[in-house]
Amino acid sequence: MTDRTFTVAEARALIPEVRERTAEIIRTRADLAELAHDLREGRSPPGGLPEAKAHEAHLDELVSWFSDNGIAIRGLAPVLIDFPGTLNGEDVQLCWLEGEPELAWYHRPELGFVGRRPLPED
Questions:
Q1: Of 13, 57, 83, 90, whose CB has the highest number of CB atoms within 10 Å?
Q2: Which are the contacts of 96, defined by CB distance < 8 A and separation ≥ 6?
Q3: pLDDT in tens, the chain (122 residues)
Q4: Do the domain assignments include residue 70?
C-alpha cells in the first residue's frame, strides 16, 4: 500500500473505476459463495474446488488493486473503502460504501464507519 493522500476531487475522480472494480468483486464473491455452499453441501458443481480456488485468487487480485493505489478496503460484504485524505487541514478517511452513487462521506481515522459525516458541499 502506498502512503498516498487524496483530495476530495482526486478520490471522486476514481469512483467510476472503483465502482467498476467493485462490481467485479460483487460478482466474484457471489460466485465463490455459491460454489462454497454447494461444496459444503456435498454437491460437486462443475469445476469444484479448483474453481473455488480460482475465485479466491481472482478476489485477492481485485482487492490488491485498491491497496496498490493507496485505497484501504475495509470490508468485502458490503465493499467498504477509505481514501486517506485531508479536509480543512485535518486527516480524514474519505469513505465510500458499495451501492453509493458517489463519494459523499468522510470520517476521522480513529472513529471509522460509526463516525461518518457527509462531505461539505463545495
A1: 83
A2: 11, 15, 18, 80, 81, 82, 83, 103, 105
A3: 468 999 999 999 999 999 999 999 999 999 888 888 887 787 766 667 777 788 889 999 999 999 999 999 999 999 999 999 999 899 999 999 999 999 999 999 999 999 999 999 86
A4: yes
Residue 47 resides in a domain: yes
- Domain limits for position 91: 8-118
Q: Rounded to whole angstroms, how far apart are CA atoms 79 and 18? A: 10
Residue 3 falls within a domain, yes or no? no
CA 68 to chain CA mean position, Å: 13
Name residue, grid cell 471509522: 112
Instruction: Say if 24 falls within a structural domain.
Output: yes
